[in-house]
Amino acid sequence: MQNKKSSPIRGKRSRYSNNTPKNNAGKNNTGKDSKPSSYNKKKNTNTAKPTEKAQKLKKNQSIQLSENAQYIQWFPGHMTRTKRQIQSDLKLVDAVAEIIDARLPQSSRNPDLDSLIGSKPRLILMNKCDLANPSATAKWVEYFRTKGIKTVELDCKSGKGIGSFTNAVREILAHRIAAWEAKGMKNHSLRVMVVGIPNVGKSSFINRISKSTKAKVEDRPGVTRGNQWFTIDKNIELLDTPGVLWPKFDDQSVGEKLAFTGAVKDQIMDTEQLALRLLEYLKRNVNPVFKERFSLTDDELTLSAHELLSAIAKKRGMLVSGGEPDTERAAVMVLDEFRAAKLGRITLEIPDKRGDA
Ligand SMILES: Nc1nc2c(ncn2[C@@H]2O[C@H](COP(=O)(O)OP(=O)(O)OP(=O)(O)O)[C@@H](O)[C@H]2O)c(=O)[nH]1
Ligand SMILES: [Mg+2]
Fold first, then answer.
1. 103 CA to middle of ligand 2, Å?
2. Would you list the domain boundaries of the chain?
3. Class of the domain covering 13-27+49-69+251-339
4. What's the pLDDT tens digit per position in 223-248?
5. Distances (CA, A) of 116 to 85, 108, 111, 169, 221
6. If you measure from the C-alpha of residue 142 to the centroid of ligand 1, how many angstroms do you get, rounded to a whole number?
7. pTM for this prediction
8. Domain 77-240 is in which class?
């Protein structure tokens, strides 16, 4: 598996991150016209205010947003083109494999997919299980089972679960295979389209299963830009597709969770505010790995997110000249460590008690 960069945000923060309240002003949701701002280590993070869009959202929709919330949306032009391409390529495939992120089994599902793929047989590949909480993963597999959706747990880093894919495809296509066989067509080749949000591991999965490195893989969203066929054995062909999000996250917490896991381009966001939101979550849902990783005391866990980020920066020796904590560097580090599950194998959502997602 190719892995050109270990972190989606490392090294970019100094060029793009800017913690001023108007950070998102002047940007469209493609991030294309956003101007990299210079890295200013002297910022006072305690003055961070919600972005203009977040403030507007708060006013208009009466949503309780913390001061660290920001408006997140990413739907660049290539995603519109990909949607059209998926639609036109559907007639070429027998089934669709929807890859989702095991840390976000609900929010990493594109709501547009249902209407896009219609009645095509579908299975879910729940990837990045190595980063998710195993008992939450089991709950989600059960949840999808009750909804009648075949689900395979995957870890494309180690290859765990890859061996179950072929049988799962045969299972969801059993009727068609039986019909082909009745017509004397043995070993009819099966074509499966692999779809999913950006950075979820579509290309990694294809490389793993085809034992190649032909599909381009990087640790950032938006790597695959065109549909590409791969033959995994004489009977199965897979179509790799670019990751697609949707034009508007109705619930901003969805955009935020996708941003935590790296499905949204980092350059369109304020990294420090995002890390503060993540710390707010981790403070509410303390797990021992997170606590231990930063040697946090119970008292420190009662600090505000800003204070906690400063404390973490100091603990890691991240200081700017004058001895002030370098919270911007610490923010990048916190997000990086979260994404690599160094703060625990955290699943950010579980199906509720009624069995709803
Ligand atoms: N820990 C872990 N990392 C994974 C897994 N699968 C993929 N990755 C990593 O996730 C990142 C994105 O993988 P890609 O295969 O490029 O994802 P993609 O869905 O093809 O992304 P786009 O083409 O940008 O839509 C890479 O750094 C992979 O190494 C997994 O199961 N576990
Ligand atoms: Mg890809």
1. 18
2. 13-27+49-69+251-339, 77-240
3. mainly alpha
4. 999 999 999 887 899 999 999 999 99
5. 11, 16, 9, 20, 21
6. 24
7. 0.84
8. alpha beta
